[in-house]
Design goal:
Shape: elongated
Helix content: 25-40%
Structural class: alpha+beta
Number of domains: 2
Strand order of the largest sheet: 8-7-3-9-10-11
Order of helices and strands: EEHHHHHHEEEEEEHEHEHHE
Largest sheet: 6 strands, mixed
Length: 281
């Protein structure tokens, strides 16, 4: 019978305190910061909110991982640098991740596998994706105790570089990268995110901008009918299709004059910008 003994390494005492290095600490984790993310998520309730708008079409008798738990694990993994589902394979048994998702670090069941998370990400339809976006808009509006008199929303697209030929990723000459070009909207006063839409790596057309802004404004108007909305964006967000909308009162759109002054609008496809740079919607 083998009787293995793990070696220890003594070090010089410090302040009469004995110091010993040992290697029998059990299961350890290098992602202790996920516990802070867990506290923030539970305070905001993001996972539960998103799960309510995703239909669960699975057989209830065979479900091992609830949708809120899978969303929570996916959020934490992305925030900790494990963007791809296959990166999460080794993290599903990580004690810190399990504890952050409400499971005992040693005896609790492992989190969802890469295959299960991939099925979750591919399950929502386009209507489900729209409802997920609305859920984030609602989250932002609930951060205000009362409807504000007015808000300024910064809208812009940002380069999300891809490493491969993912579906709908395109080469963008301005960024000299193959990328997605998602649209981001932020509250300029608080810096809080309002909505994010993943989209192909090309400058949005005027029709696309109009459709996106129409859905966003209509959602905000369901709760804030009297709030004055100002949308502030680059020149290609001021194309005639977006600027000439007259169906919503108390809303204006402003373009980034600094960008136009430096000639960047033509490089990014903003040649259809409104000549005045500002207008009423």
């Amino acid at each position: 019978m083998l009787d293995d003994t793990i070696a220890t390494f003594p070090f010089p005492a410090v302040g009469r305190k004995k110091i010993t290095a040992a290697f029998d600490g059990g299961r350890l984790s290098s992602d202790g910061g996920v516990m802070l993310l867990a506290q923030a998520e539970r305070r905001l309730g993001i996972a539960e909110r998103l799960a309510r708008v995703i239909p669960d079409r699975r057989d209830p008798e065979r479900v091992k991982h609830a949708i809120p738990d899978m969303i929570r694990a996916r959020i934490f993994a992305i925030a900790c640098g494990y963007e791809d589902c296959n990166d999460f394979g080794s993290r599903r048994a990580d004690p810190a991740f399990k504890l952050a998702c409400g499971r005992w670090p040693e005896t609790g069941a492992d989190l969802a596998s890469q295959q299960t998370l991939s099925r979750l990400e591919n399950a929502p339809t386009i209507r489900d994706a729209i409802r997920l976006t609305y859920a984030l808009v609602d989250q932002w509006m609930e951060s205000y105790v009362t409807p504000p008199d007015g808000v300024v929303l910064d809208v812009d697209d940002t380069c999300d570089v891809v490493h491969g030929h993912q579906q709908l990723s395109l080469f963008n000459a301005h960024y000299d990268e193959r990328c997605f070009l998602p649209i981001h909207v932020y509250d300029s006063a608080t810096g809080r995110p309002v909505a994010i839409v993943l989209r192909p790596g090309k400058t949005p057309s005027g029709r696309e901008v109009r459709a996106y802004l129409r859905r966003l404004v209509r959602r905000i108007r369901t709760r804030w009918p009297l709030t004055r909305l100002t949308l502030r964006g680059d020149s290609h967000y001021a194309r005639p299709e977006a600027m000439e909308r007259g169906e919503w009162p108390q809303l204006s759109l402003r373009t980034d004059r600094h960008e136009a002054a430096h000639g960047q609008s033509s490089e990014r496809g903003g040649c259809g910008a409104h000549p005045t740079g500002a207008g009423r919607l």
